[in-house]
């Protein structure tokens, strides 16, 4: 709109009237404004550079990794042993333990987060909500390394107390999974609560008017109406759980193992990257290249999940006017 | 499912429930609703109790008891007089009497004993002769509730040791540099590193994020080039397309795991730009060993990490400024940029600042990217410039937590408390700032 407004740069010219030119109504370029706009555009473009940078860096180093004689692409995805010392690079054990942590986390977080969301959206009074919201945000704001400390010094001893010390190792997937579950619960709770609150109250009133109880209204009317939002929230939480590093680095152990026993130690993808890069890493070593290959797999896993969650919201959202 | 048959009209007879049956049906449904409501409430309580357990767990480690045993008791050394009562020459005599000549020579070389003041000498006496040593540490729960048992055990194992209450969070802990001995270790270097990182990240991420947000909110539909020429039309289309890619891209970036940003930082800032990030380019070269693993690398990495969140929250704040304000400004003849600078930004500032500080305070708690970028785990020198090696609080917490000894767990918990206090005060600053800016503006 600003473009149509033409400001005369010298108003006195019109007053004295010594030069009467036809007024040019076309947009006049303003150098300063264009420079500013270009700079702002450049700021926005940094995000593109970041993405390109991530893909380039991960791709480039991964190529170097696969180009080396020690590892082939097929071996990378099918070998069940990851032991760089003896030249075994199979990513399956790392992916497997990542998935175990994620599944345990989701088993904890989906019921817990959804219950919190339904309670806050449907049952809680204004005052209770005003108390609960900040508490949930507080849970979400605690640094993940603190959760790692919690997993190692609280949850693990507690698990070992319950199931026996010879069953549960000091470092185990279960403890990490449970705590990652606690960590992603606030994400599911807040995102689902947003989705539930967005369901128009007319639906609730209609359901209650037909004689449904509050619970029946919540579970048969409101939750189905917000279902796409809830699924999207769970997927976002899942991608967070896959990418979570500190809890698994501290609690899940430091040995890549292909196991389905959650009480044994097993290193995840993120945990492995953190451990390998923690030391003084030489840029020429195959270890250095290998973490980028793992990073590439990790990046695509989370990217696909994030895109899926957005597509689900767009495709299956129930729109009420 | 077992309750179902009562409240459904049966398929065979098509009969609706009547009379007593209806009442029963309603009552049972109500009851079921109550039961579920109770289970929802239970979930919320579980969530809250996790928070309490977390807090208790940290407190349990950060406070507690220690048993201290000295090599030589102070009383036997000075015939029952407290050290503070001794005069300076007496202290010197004491030292010369009790220390081996080699140790004395070393001390004298640092600064002659005779020239030192009493305070310093007492320190030396404690450090060199008394040598108080922590022989056992106890968690807060044990210290409070199992006191008798602990004392009995202690009397057996270390008869000369004294049990005392210990808060691992204390002033010394904040101002002491790192040490391999957990009793003397402090978080000074880590705290300074965190503050440097915080400042730099704000300086880098705030202008960039704000600029991108302004562009996406205010200039998105603008056409820079002349629409009448084919080249202008082409460039305008390219820009419009890339702008829409930018906005989807920002959402995707906000979901990328933080450790991936760390790897980006490692490959780009630490390695490819080593010349710049190690300071060699400017001939500064804070540490010869830093080789790109410096504060500036970490800050750049962190800035990329928080940028999407800063952009999204700034966009929300700019969106919230009523469009009537813009129209009024433009109608009075202001240019687009004048409108943004003088009208939109001042009104959006409270929201922008709050969003930015919250985003960055979350980044301050991030550990994973910094591990990858290469924060040092053990340095004793304070960071002096942006090209210094560094460590930060979360890294220290990680490092100390991963050690098996109880003392390190205790200082990890203490460092967690320091970190949480820092984060809380940052968040409080954000809220106060927002309230202050809101109260100053009348719109």
Summarize the structure in words:
The complex is a heterodimer of chains A (321) and B (443). Chain A contains 13 helices and two strands, in the order αααββαααααααααα. With 321 residues, chain A is mainly alpha-helical. Chain A has a single domain (82-316), classed as MetI-like fold. Chain A has a two-stranded antiparallel ribbon. Residues 1-8 of chain A have low confidence and may be disordered. Chain B folds into three domains: 4-45; 64-166, no CATH class; 188-440, MetI-like fold (Orthogonal Bundle), CATH 1.10.3720. Chain B has 19 helices and three strands. Chain B has a three-stranded antiparallel β-sheet with strand order 2-1-3. Chain B is flat. Classes of the chains: A mainly alpha (321), B mainly alpha (443). The interface between A and B is large, with 90 and 94 residues.
Q: What string gives the helices and strands of chain B in order? A: HHEHHHHEHHEHHHHHHHHHHH
User: What name goes with the CATH superfamily of the largest domain in chain B?
Assistant: MetI-like
- In helices, the fraction of residues of chain A equals over 70%
CATH topology of chain A: MetI-like fold
Largest sheet of chain B: 3 strands, antiparallel
Under CATH at level 1, the class of chain A stands as Mainly Alpha
Strand order of the largest sheet of chain A: 1-2
Specify the CATH homologous superfamily of chain A: MetI-like
Give the class of chain A from helix and strand content and strand pairing: mainly alpha
Count of the separate structural domains of chain B: 3
The total of beta strands of chain B comes to 3
Assigned CATH architecture of chain A? Orthogonal Bundle
